[in-house]
Amino acid sequence: MSPPFSFMPDAPTLLAYVLAGFVLFITPGPDMSLTLARTIGGGRRAGIATVIGTGLGTLVHTLAAAFGISALIAASATAFTVLKVVGALYLAWLAIDAIRHGSALTVRAERVRTGLWRTVWMGFGVNLTNPKVVLFFITFLPQFVHADAPNPTGQLAFLGVTFVAMNLPLGVLLVLGAERITGALQARPRVLRAIDWLFAGLFGAFAARILTTAR
Fold it and tell me: Is residue 23 part of a domain?
């Protein structure tokens, strides 16, 4: 029987995860581009609806990854180690790609009137149908869980829910400052470049840590 709160990672691991999640949030990608575009085109309500939709999609991805990885852990600790090594290589590729190609921020301020529920489903669909999100969470979450953890399923699910819970208020802040944030990012390519290097450094460090401790 697992001890109480066995789904909670230790404090240093949780802090590292939160910091990594924040770097992920500020790194421009499809979800941020859609949120900013819908906010500028449809107002703050449309932006918040988009944040809710992408959050729901991320929740599905993270929980699916959590239970899938847990099944792998139950089947073989060696297979889990292989997954972590493959994940480390993928994270290293993401770091290199961020330096080579930079961030992706595409905002088209099209004035389209769409119902709030339809906007929620739009955000949900864009996030859920992105295969890169699936691959990312399958490789990202295991970096913060040990194969011999007393409750790996609970820890993975906790980390996934924490990621969504952390991104919702940050997403609302993004919506509230959409016009300023969009203008600042597009007018200051050096800021975007600094985010690219921060992202690359973080995931390069994750990859190195896994590859050096896998043995």
Answer: yes
CB 143 within 8 Å of CB 41: no
Q: How far apart are CA 170 and CA 167, in angstroms?
A: 5
For residue 103, the number of C-alpha atoms closer than 13 Å in the C-beta half-sphere is 28
Measured on CA atoms in the order 174, 176, 181, 183, is the torsion positive or negative? positive
Amino acid identity of residue 211, one-letter, is L
Number of domains in the chain: 1
DSSP 8-state symbol, 3: P
Residue ranges in the chain assigned as alpha helix (H): 11-26, 30-42, 44-75, 77-101, 116-128, 131-140, 152-176, 178-187, 189-213
Global confidence as pTM:
0.74
pLDDT tens-digit series, residues 130-161: 766 777 777 777 778 776 777 777 888 888 88
Looking at residue 52, its pLDDT comes to 94
The number of beta carbons lying within 10 Å of the beta carbon of residue 2 is 12
Q: In terms of residue numbers, what domain contains 17?
A: 11-213
**Alpha-carbon span 18 to 166, nearest angstrom:** 8
